[in-house]
Amino acid sequence: MSPSGSVGPIRVLIAKPGLDGHDRGAKVVARALRDAGMEVIYAGLRQTPEEIVESALEEDVNLIGLSILSGAHMALFPRVLALLKQKHATRIRVFAGGIIPDEDAKKLKKMGIRAIFGPGASLDEIVATARRLVGPTHS
Amino acid sequence: MPIGARRVLRGDRQALARLISQVENRDPSALPSVRALYPYSGRATVVGITGPLGVGKSSLVNLLLAHLRSDGKRIGIVAVDPSSPFSGGSILGDRIRLARPPGDDGVFIRSMAARGHAGGVALATRETVRLLDAFGMDVVLVETVGSGQADVEIHEVASTSVVVVVPHLGDEVQSLKAGLFEIADVFSVNKSDLPGADSAARYLSEMTQLVPVTGSWRPVVIQTSTVAPRGIPELWEAVTRHEAYLDSSGSRQTRDRQRLTDEILGLVREQVDAQLLRALEREPDLQALLDRVVAREIDPHSAAERLLGEVRRPR
Ligand SMILES: Nc1nc2c(ncn2[C@@H]2O[C@H](COP(=O)(O)OP(=O)(O)OP(=O)(O)O)[C@@H](O)[C@H]2O)c(=O)[nH]1
Ligand SMILES: [Mg+2]
Fold first, then answer.
1. Which residues are near ligand 2, the ion (C-beta closer than 5 Å)?
2. For residue B21, which residues of chain A lie inside 8 Å, CB to CB?
3. Which CATH number is A49's domain given?
């Protein structure tokens, strides 16, 4: 093994909790993160918080991106955060996108969701935020 | 024993996940644990599942997983996908197809990007497989996309290689020419719910009669389907038969020795590459040296000799 470049690319799990079946937004974000040089583990639709956290731990990701349109965010996001805490894995930062009313967004941020993107957010902004959340040790 | 290795042996999944990342990143801080875990490996059956894009490799892995879990086997899965040549990033989507009961500790799934580091997929994949082996997995399934190079490398990692094809053999014939045929111990003609599966299977069987083999194993052809589940126990049975053949014929030993030779050489190459890079960074005259080659004052061989001397110089 070589000492040069021993810090790998940022790894992100993109998952869609909840019951809605639209993952176009999530896929667009996944592609943007890939094009920014990240390794994106795409977990797909209808993931439970338990499955999301289990995948995130196995894949040793730096970030989890949750996408939701179904309106169940107030039930599902805090559960993901709680499970991460329970597993001593709060090093994994969580961001979210979808249709989330401002009021809920405020509450979720207080609970520990690091960033929330509405339908109008630019991909550049999402990529920049992902980088910022992981910090300067990664490229 | 290093703490990381101890935690892996104790069944700590997060410690395993972290160690795999370090191995993937070729991070030298993983070395003490990787070394300490080596004696605990060598027990798992390592099976490669490879083939062209979209033939149903992940779906097959998913059904094999269910089949083997119902048998009480502990299963590791490594799914390797290519990185984008442009950004170095990748989208790893194989997990979508993998289902398992929540909280099942007998399964560990890991997605890997073939990052194209020196030695390709093989070094990092092999070490990852070995970590899963030391972790106590009975079977490790390695999925790779059949894009030429990667399949050949799967042969260096797995003791049995399953090559997956689909009934419409147009493209696959090309891939088979590109080396898939040589590495197949077992063929899965997947999507056999679609028309043409019988003739594809027959065609492959005939091919296996024509292609020269080393030893006495001829690739077995199994028809499978994951949508109208079929052939999964038979597929696994073929894998076990090949594994038994490896033992009874003595070729397991021969192949292991060959693989380990390749691995050791790969590791040496990795070190030499790193040293060469460092030497080049130290070489302030590199540009001047290059200028002289361009001006035909010295030849490329002499320039290479100079650099080699630089690598060998003790620091
Ligand atoms: N008809 C039919 N379709 C199948 C079968 N197995 C898989 N598929 C479909 O083939 C597509 C690809 O399946 P995957 O399991 O993702 O294939 P893969 O080889 O892992 O794909 P990559 O990892 O992207 O190369 C999906 O749409 C599956 O539903 C099968 O036995 N019959
Ligand atoms: Mg796949």
1. B 57-58, 94
2. 8, 11, 60
3. 3.40.50.280
Confidence of residue B178 (pLDDT cuts 50, 70, 90): low
Does any domain span residue A1? no
The pairing of beta strand A115-117 with beta strand B160-165: unpaired
Residues of A near B (Cβ–Cβ under 8 Å) read: 1-9, 11, 30-31, 33-44, 48, 50-51, 54-55, 57-60, 87-89
- Its pTM stands at 0.92
B156 in Cβ contact with B256 (< 8 Å): no
Global ipTM: 0.93
Q: Which residues line ligand 1 (CB under 6 A)?
A: B 53-59, 94, 97, 145, 190-191, 193-194, 225-227
Residue B177 DSSP one-character state:
I
* Contact between chains at A41 and B92 (C-beta distance less than 8 A): yes
Contacts of B18 in chain A (CB under 8 A): 60
Cα angle B276, B280, B285 (rounded to 5 degrees) comes to: 145
Write down the pLDDT at residue A55.
Answer: 96
Q: Is A138 inside a domain boundary?
A: no
Token pair, residue B227, equals 């949508």
Query: How far, in Å, CA of A25 to CA of B136, rounded?
Result: 39
